[in-house]
Amino acid sequence: MMLSEMIAAALAGDMPVEEALFENEEVAELDLSALRFDSVRFVKCRFIRCEFNAARFNSVSFENSDISNCRFRDSLWRKSSFRDSKAVGSVFTRALFKGVSIEGCNFRYANFSETLWDGCEVGASSLREAVLSDVKFRRAQFRGTDLTAAEFFKSPLKGIDLSDCIIDGISLSDTLYELRGAKVTAAQAVELAKLIGLTVV
Fold first, then answer.
1. What does the pLDDT look like over 129-149, one tens digit per residue?
2. Domains of the chain and any CATH numbers
3. Rounded Cα gap, residues 5 and 170, in angstroms
4. Cβ contact 143:162 at 8 Å
5. How many Å is the maximal CA-CA distance in the chain?
6. Which whole-number Å values give the CA distances from 166 to 139, 143, 173, 189, in the listed order?
7. Dist. CA 64–CA 169, nearest whole Å
8. What is the pLDDT of residue 1?
9. For position 26, what pLDDT does the model report?
10. Residue 177 phi, psi dihedral angles, 5° rounding
11. How far is 117 from 95, CA to CA, in rounded Å?
12. What is the pTM of this model?
């Protein structure tokens, strides 16, 4: 069954989309709000301006797929993953991520404000200019990730290792309290000090 057909059937019967593999599929401008996805793989799929608000994702993977400019407000993600995928400009406000991994992805301009990240890992990805304000991080990991000009306003980073990430121009509160307990390199600390007008000699 094609992706669009399975989605229509799931919406009509208030049933989840489950135990499925979709490859090289493309759907546009669909409202998939509150739909449940369980044990689903999306491989080389593209979603164009789709709505996933309040949708539920359990053991779902996006591989070489594109969900750019889609909306996932108030969505729930458990044990799911993104691999070599694009989510440029997508909106995830107030979403809950538990045991989610993001690897080799482009999430530039994505909006993650007011989200919770619990046991999540981001590696070798781009979150340039992403909005991560009012985020709660629990056991989150960032590896080799580009966070240039990302916004972390009111998002405590205690316990997070940013030492191999690019954090140039990140946006923080005036006191930089978000960085208390975070791990950065000496070179990064020098650049961060400039945010509060300090010159390290």
1. 999 999 999 999 999 999 999
2. 3-196 (2.160.20.80)
3. 43
4. no
5. 66
6. 20, 10, 19, 12
7. 29
8. 67
9. 95
10. -60, -25
11. 9
12. 0.93
